[in-house]
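Help!! Second protein's tokens look totally different from the first
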Amino acid sequence: MDRLIYTSLTAMRGSMARQTAIANNLANANTPGFKADLAEAQSLWLDGQRLDTRAFASEEVLAANMDAGTVVSTGRDLDIAMSGDSMLAVQAENGEIGYTKRGDLLLSASGLLTTGDGRPVQGSQGPITLPPADSINIDEQGSVWIVPQGGDASQPQQVDKLQIASPAGSNIVKGLDGLFRVKGGGVLPDDPDARVTTRNLESSNVSATEALVKMIEASRSWDTQLKLLGDARDMDAATADLMSMPQ
């Protein structure tokens, strides 16, 4: 009896983990450059000095969907879309280097260049800080050019270059903060073939319709396991009644 109960319990936990991943994807359906979480189920066998007679279900976020999102034109000078698998290096909250496809860049009051969620953008010498300027432009190689305040518009100056890396051949994992990192530590190599398209953004690759369908499936799976627990309770009660019958 316990086999049915605990197997159903682990399946319910898996459904909860799947629902969490789907809810996170839906919440980021409009986040530029967001890559959908992929929740996968696997069997976990109980080891010990006995036969492997039971396996529990485990479902968790193991990877991310790296398919490209749709590139849309925005007309905004600081919006960029990176070609192929190229990723932008940013500074995470703990100071480590992380990587993202998010390209909605902003300029803070102090001149710090950040992504739309406030993460400092990395250049060749660290976080990019721009002086007051009449205009800012990013070329297709990722170089950042400005026309200083009161300067000659025909004589722009290069301030820095975006650090754009290639994940090809590297094992990268997605963190809870939505940033990608090299598994086990380290940094990705620069991508010499990277190309940047300005005034464009890569949108999220989450399909809201598909996510809603998966959410319904996860909910039905939860209901099924709940019914199995009810059946196990009824069978246990019936067995107890049978054992208590007078001889």
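Here's the second one for comparison:
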Amino acid sequence: MIKHATFVAEHVYTLPPVEVFSAWADPVVKARWAGGPTGWSPRLELDFRVDGLERYHGGPPGGPAHTLQARYLDIVASKRIVYSYDVLLDQVRVLVSLATVEFARHGPGTRLVHTEQAAFLTGDDTSPFERHMRAALKSLAAELHDSAPLEAEPELGGSAAQAALMEPGGRAVQVTVAEERS
């Protein structure tokens, strides 16, 4: 049975929207903060433009292999990113999602709101997905050297051990930058 869910994760950064947005657009920077937990050796291909594709492949040693395939549907610099994607675990499609990322001025900084409307094709527990979304936004803060959020964030559910699996760490990342299309 398919399980549908909508998730919203917010994070306030002390940097202006143009700087936070650029961390999504630059393939080298994005690979560092969105590459997955410690121990994964992901490959990232990023063609960051409307109709451009993003492909990610990685996973924990011994599997399963995680493959994400995304298409950018709308991009307005420093304002929003809209994309759709699917996730495969060892060649089995487990998730299809529509994601929006909004960048809004918040005093001198940025309020980022990441919303996902997901269809879990295997009906699995969705809580690791939500923890992963929130951990990615914290990893982005670490990448931006933004250690002092402007306001407190909501507490995550689940055990500390589960949340720790999603924390960023030193990981080797291979990046492929897509060539400009004619």
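Reply: Different proteins will give different token patterns, so don't panic. The CA atoms of residues 97 and 118 lie 4 Å apart.
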